[in-house]
Amino acid sequence: MSVRPASVGSYLRAAAPDRLPEVVADHLRTWFPVKAVELLLSDLTLSALWPVMEPEAPAGGPLEQRCFGSQQPVTDNGSRRLLLPLTTWGDRLGVLRLDLTDTLTSELAAEITNIADELALALRAADKDTDRYRQVVRRQRLTMAAELQWDLLPGRSLSGERFRLAGQLDPAYAMFGDHYDWALTDDRLTLTVLNGHGDGIEAALLTTIAVNAMRNARRSGAGIVEQAELASDAIYSRSGGAAHVATLLLEVDLAGGTIEAVDAGSPRALIAREGGITAVSLEQQLPLGMFGDSRYETQKVQLEPGDRLLVVSDGVHAATPGGRAPYGETGLLTALRRTRLQPPSEAVGTVIRALREYHDGDDQEDDAVIVCLDWLHGKA
């Protein structure tokens, strides 16, 4: 008599990176009361979930979207359909949809949830070695600038015991240099929002240089001052001061809530606290790359448990479509108030959708970044 394997992980590690959905589907149909399996991945705009195994099938419907948005299992059809979120370290990838031949039990749900978790981890690792999953989530061709910037992103959300974090970039398929980066080590979260000067491929190249210079310094143990100075030197050596990268660098102490900040340009920070939203007042320093041997200083900001920190690029706060007033002076606070009960992964999408509505059919003249951080430490 065959014995069910304790884990699907060994099969996933042995599989070709582009065959992970089929490996999981075969495993589920062999060992569980499962008759049909589909993997759905979120597109770049986080607005739809698209099937991987039957790519010609329609996008996921309301149940799939509810599972993705809530990050909770969803059942339907008399508990004969199960939808499970696919998430790694808080980064939402998609949904695993199963049709069962038997009624779902709590024990069965727990076992299949473990399999979904292993699949999510394997998908994230495999993404470096196959284009299959990226071809699904791209609904049109990216510009070369967008290709550079999507490859540069750390992810779209991240979470831990002390925090929840998410970022979104828009428009997804054509970009002009706005970007974000983050890294977590111990209780230190480094967060950067930046905007390369100009547009198209030149702006993306400047952003690429800045991000990689800051990563190089950070991975060598440098703080955000040295990160800023190394990136500024690298940009200046390329452009001689003719181009720059406006940047806000933040290092968050997740244990105590203290933020060290280097404000080198146009990204703006706000804090939502107990129903109110206030701008973070920082002394602005020169954008990276304007002069050789630029030097930077840090400023401090203190978070309180339960605070939400929001950082927006100038493509958000300074947007003036059709000659309207800057979005940061009118619609931004209204949009942010709508996000009060949403997790960061949903809040960033709410703000981006409101920004699109503000454009009222006009093309965006600049790309837009919003990053949302909830600091949970000490919150009951």
From TrEMBL:
Q: InterPro entries per the record?
A: Bact_Sigma-Reg, PPM-type-like_dom_sf, PPM-type_phosphatase-like_dom
Return the protein name: Serine phosphatase RsbU (Regulator of sigma subunit)
- Which UniProt keyword terms apply here? Hydrolase
PPM-type phosphatase domain spans which residues? 158-375
Q: Which Pfam families match?
A: SpoIIE
Can you provide one Gene Ontology molecular function annotated for this UniProt record? Answer: phosphatase activity
Q: Which organism is it from?
A: Paractinoplanes abujensis
Q: Which Gene3D superfamilies does its entry note? A: PPM-type phosphatase domain
